[in-house]
Amino acid sequence: MPRSRRNPIIDKQITPKKLAGKIRAVLLGLTDEDDKKLYDSNDPMLDSEVARIQKLIIDADPTGGKYALYLYNTLRYALLEENDVVDTWAADLNEARQYLTVVSELQGGATNPLWLNIELSETFKTIGQLGAYLVENRVISDRFQGDFIETALRLQEEGHCFILTGDQTFEDGEGYNWIFIDLITATASCELGTNSGWCTASGSFYNYLPKSGLIMAYCIESAKWGKNKENIDRFQITSSTDGDDLNQTNDGVFVEQKLPNNVKFKFKGNSKFEPLLNPLKKFAKAVQIRANLCVGMPIWDAYQSYISNGKKWTGKYKTLYDIYGDKCNVPPLYPITQATDVMTRIYEFNNASILDQSYRQVKGKLSRDLTTLRSYIPSNMFVLELCALRNPLIYDREVRKYLQMREIPEDTYTIFQGKMEATVNSYEIMKYEMTASVFLYVIGPDVVGGMSRDKINVLEYKGPNYPVVNVNWFEACAFANAMSVMAGCTPCYKIDGENVEWDPEANGYRLPTEAEWEIAALEPPKEYYEGPIRGQWDNDQGIEIGGGENKRVQEIAAEPMPSIEDYVQENYTYAGSNQPLAVAWFSENSDGRTHPVGMLKPNGWGIYDMSGNVSEWVFDAYGEISEKISLGMRKGTQGWCGQREKGDKNAYKGMPVKNPKRRRRR
Q1: Conformation bin of residue 592: beta by default, left when phi > 0, alpha when psi is -120 to 50
Q2: How many other β-carbons are positioned within 10 Å of the β-carbon of residue 604?
Q3: Cα first-last separation, the chain
């Protein structure tokens, strides 16, 4: 098993003064590097050379110091062991920075592969040896260059994609070389699809799964074209998960074939792209096998197959293993072959209560086991599966905190732009938008609540703390009932097909009314103010979003919440502020994607994301203010904020509900 993730690949750090002394010693050919006299010199030329080499090392270290000792050791080896010269060693430093950047990103990412648990200085005497090792483990390429390739290799290591062609390329009719990439998750689709104009790169990736696999082709020469390139650098193909359907649609090849900006094209009769057709068809069949196995809870399903067959891969799992190999972190195979016993210990407690005595006795060890497993598994995927399996370890870590409620006291509130006085009894509403972790935990492995089994497909969720999307109004009502049952409450809804009746006497979870939602979105009277809540909105350092070449620090408006003494109930334009960058993810800052809940400033109630990110379902209808009624509830009734989905809504208390609509964000 790997050691702790606390920088296992990083050598001991060194102070600048000691680094200078070591450089001076090696230039003089000395071995006693700790001689204090070496830190002082009366030789200006030697001092100048020491300073030059020290700057070269600092510039080549992407972390600002963590790898300085390793780079010094490569210099020492070059000079003392190989009788090399400084300039020859220095020529390799550009590559060193690239290699160490990759190592640093992997070290700080979701996974920490077993092959990374090594000491650099003990293993790689030269920079070239480190580069060869990274090529061997397929996280850099000795043939392909550019930001796109580096991003693809990083995403492959994290399990988000797989470069089907390896180091091989295929030539089109114009002599350009292409590689093909299996896009496994939305993360890969978004990052590799940047500036492509494809909907799969901006939130619609899961509309293509699990019905199909998605392959992106990339022209490796495009890295040299610059931003003003006129040639085509990428295209995407979508195929059915059934290999026999490959010749049934479009121009007799794939279901969908698109150039950037959604321009459709054909292979047959196309002198440029037809030479790529046959290898693409071969790879498409491999992707279809993978896509068929990577639905639902793929790690759990593969684990059961592996155990039941004597810890061997059989059938389609063996085919997948043979195609994708054992070094790429492709779900579902890689983690199981590496850590079967650890997974077994965690799985033993699926569906157990956090109060279970046997669980409490080993909780600490299971927590360490989960940390270990993140060395092998794209952690979001495994965590999401554990949520669906109702594992108590993940309930403690990723579910409980997102179930927090905020009470809205009984009172009369002015809502709808000051056009209505709404008198409501007290109710509670969740502080966060519904997260994937809570959603999967509630519906469970058997998909309670009458929802489609597609809802349990963990690859459809970006992460445990992201808001759930693509849930319609009827599913939201059914989910609220499921939450009620799990909490031991009386369900609020009687559901018969598309007829939904709200029982106002029930004490379970439900959707808020539009009036309740409005009250929770507006600022509270001073006596109900929940602040000040401190967070990253207190300064203007920003939030890091995106990944790869699209990684950036997103500006957020610095706007600390006032003290209770300074608080004044404001009629803000947005929920919690007049500055949308302080409280909302929207077109200007979101990159067209959802973001983890609770990252931006809450409103005065202490409720997050009431503007931006995604929209929430409410129970009742849009309509004229004069038609609204005050929907009072008895104290203790729990409200619930739901999901994003376009549609209709039309209901009042006790009436059958049809044509649901959503409450739009302001």
Answers
A1: left
A2: 25
A3: 50
CA nearest neighbour of 236 among 268, 275, 192: 192
CB 213 within 8 A of CB 241: yes
Q: Please indicate, yes or no, whether the overall pTM of this predicted structure exceeds 0.85.
A: no
Pairing of strands 177-183, 212-219: antiparallel
The CA distance from 179 to 165, in Å, is: 6
Which residues partner with 663 through β-bridges? 616
Q: Which residues of 173-203 are buried (b: 16+ CB within 10 A; e: fewer)?
A: eeebbbbbbbbbbbbbbbbbbbebebbbbbb
Q: Which helix (H) or strand (E) holds 333?
A: helix 333-347
CA 179/CA 167 separation, integer angstroms: 8
Structure tokens at 491: 């369900």
Contacts of 364 (CB under 8 A, 6+ apart): none
Of 202 and 454, the one with more pLDDT: 454
pLDDT, mean of residues 472-492: 93
**261-278 b/e (C-beta count within 10 Å ≥ 16 → b):** eeeeeebeebeebebbbe
pLDDT tens-digit readout, 551-575: 667 777 788 999 999 999 999 999 9
Kindly state the tokens that stand for 589. 């800052």
439: nearest Cα among 462, 452, 456, 427: 456
Closest CA to 120 of 157, 156, 72, 84: 72
Question: Does CATH number 3.40.50.720 belong to domain 405-433+468-660?
Answer: no
List residues bridging with 598 in a β-sheet: none
pLDDT by residue (tens digit) across 72-99?
A: 888 888 887 766 667 778 777 877 887 8
Q: Give 468's DSSP letter.
A: P
- Whether 16 has a pLDDT exceeding 90, the answer reads no
Six-digit token string for 137: 């483990």
Q: Residue 318 contacts by C-beta under 8 Å, 6 or more apart in sequence? A: none
The per-residue pLDDT for 10 is 46
Strand pairing category for 427-430 and 637-638: parallel
| Cα atoms in the Cβ-side hemisphere of radius 13 Å centred on 179 | 24
User: What SS3 class is residue 604?
Assistant: coil
Query: What are the tokens at 325?
Result: 């190999």
Nearest to 149 by CA among 133, 159, 138, 158: 138
Please state, in angstroms and as integers, the Cα–Cα distance from residue 80 to each residue in 30, 45, 77, 535, following that order: 9, 21, 5, 52
* Per-domain boundaries in the chain: 16-136, 147-293, 298-397, 405-433+468-660
